[in-house]
Design goal:
globular, 13 helices, 405 residues, 6-stranded mixed β-sheet, 36% helix, binds flavin-adenine dinucleotide
């Protein structure tokens, strides 16, 4: 193979998955992450389908089950915390043959990283600031002031990807805002707790949820609708907290106590809910995977699995292409574009019903959720979006890593 080195920007979900499979393909990947260390906290993700299959191929299935949660119920509560609607979530495990788990995004990221961290060059606390491509490679400038050369550069750096901006253009060319802002934080010792139940309090245009985590931690998730498109850059923790107070400050249920916890929280995940839509996911020697290429948003409930699928397929096609990266990139896009497009379309449909903007919309949403408690109806409602239609390709990995099969 003539091309061997690949710089991967971002150690989230797609980045470490790609490093693992690129190593199996005989490449020398280097991972770079702008945070000083692996990110902790954040939010939880539902995980199933092709992502689960790939995790299994990486030898991670039992770890994922160990650190994850098996949700029993999605429960909508009223002003006084009484159950207003809801459904048992066993249907998700049934539809996926028991391969459905909810786990911290940062736990998933850590497990993936642990598979590769010791055998791969890893750079924390630095980032790419310039890319110059020529016939033989890409000259990369780093924020630290140094420069290096790589055969390929891959952006796995999420919704606000720097690699995408440097290679393809500004984010607003590709971003479609879905009309919501999302925020999440976790605390220790909050009461009440409802183990393995997703407790949701909805008001027109917004929702607040809590989820009991291991070690007496609780995760809180805020989502609110906004017409500003896209909302202003949300700089600064105190500005973000102020915005959440404005949105949720007069709400009932546990909102007041949760906002008190928020005031004490040292950090907060806070972002707009958007999708990324691009005509191409590669250009010359630069390619994108995961949210950087095709963020489907939290409304898809599957972004982690999609990032892992893209990483696996990209590495597999590079393994097959004997150094012809353009052919590999074309095949990668060809295999995944329709599948990802359908996931994005599903997420857009779901987003319009997610946090209804009127009381009537809320009532209707709750009726639909109630109907999902009827055996069989939940299968009908979720079956199409849950069951993956894409067959994961099998590749010959020229240099299987210790754990790759
Ligand atoms: C509230 C919420 C709920 C969600 N629920 C689900 C769910 O239920 N199921 C599911 O599968 N998905 C869910 N998702 C989506 C999922 O988290 C993402 O799709 C997934 O994390 C994408 O992985 P990624 O590796 O592409 O990007 P990320 O996980 O975002 O990782 C990107 C990494 O790149 C780093 N980075 C950023 N900029 C730079 C830079 N300039 N240089 C170097 N590094 C950089 C970041 O620090 C980060 O570590 C949810 C998302 C949200 C916000």
């Amino acid at each position: 193979m003539s091309e061997k080195t690949a710089l991967i920007s971002g150690i989230g979900i797609g980045g470490p998955t790609l490093a693992f499979w690129l190593q199996a393909a005989g490449f020398e990947p280097t991972l770079i992450e702008h945070a000083p260390a692996l990110r902790t906290g954040g939010y939880v993700v539902d995980f199933w389908g092709l992502g689960y299959d790939i995790a299994e191929r990486m030898g991670l299935a039992s770890d994922i089950e160990r650190v994850g949660y098996h949700m029993r119920e999605m429960r909508i509560v009223d002003d006084r915390g009484r159950r207003a609607a809801g459904f048992g979530t066993r249907v998700f495990r049934e539809l996926t043959g028991g391969r459905f788990v909810t786990l911290g995004r940062s736990d998933l990221s850590r497990l993936l990283f642990e598979k590769i961290g010791r055998t791969t060059e890893v750079i924390f606390g630095n980032e790419i600031v310039g890319l110059q491509e020529d016939a033989d490679g890409v000259q990369v400038q780093f924020k630290s002031g140094s420069e290096r050369r790589f055969d390929l550069v891959i952006g796995a750096d999420g919704l606000h990807s720097t690699v995408r901006r440097l290679a393809f253009g500004p984010q607003d060319l590709f971003e479609k805002h879905l009309g919501y802002v999302v925020a999440a934080f976790e605390v220790r010792g909050y009461r009440p707790r409802d183990e393995d139940i997703y407790v949701v309090f909805g008001q027109p245009g917004r929702m607040l949820a809590r989820f009991a985590l291991h070690d007496d931690r609780t995760l809180f998730l805020f989502i609110f609708a906004t017409d500003v498109n896209p909302p202003k850059p949300m700089n600064g923790l105190s500005e973000q907290k102020k915005m959440l107070h404005e949105q949720f400050g007069t709400d009932k249920w546990e909102s007041r106590f949760i906002l008190d916890e928020l005031d004490r929280a040292p950090d907060l995940y806070f972002d707009r809910v958007s999708q990324i839509k691009m005509k191409n996911w590669s250009k010359g020697r630069v390619a994108l995977v995961g949210d950087a290429a095709f963020c489907a948003s939290l409304m898809a409930g599957q972004g982690s699995a999609l990032a892992m699928t893209a990483a696996y397929v990209l590495a597999g096609e590079l393994a097959n292409a004997s150094g012809r990266h353009e052919a590999a990139f074309r095949k990668y896009e060809g295999l995944l574009r329709a599948y990802i497009g359908s996931k994005q379309a599903g997420a857009e449909r779901f987003s319009s019903a997610f946090a209804p903007k009127s009381r009537w919309g809320l009532f209707l949403r709750n009726q639909v959720i109630r109907a999902c408690a009827i055996p069989g109806l939940a299968r009908l409602a979720f079956g199409r979006d849950i069951i993956d239609t894409l067959q994961l390709p099998d590749y010959d990995w020229p240099a299987p890593t210790r754990t790759a099969v």
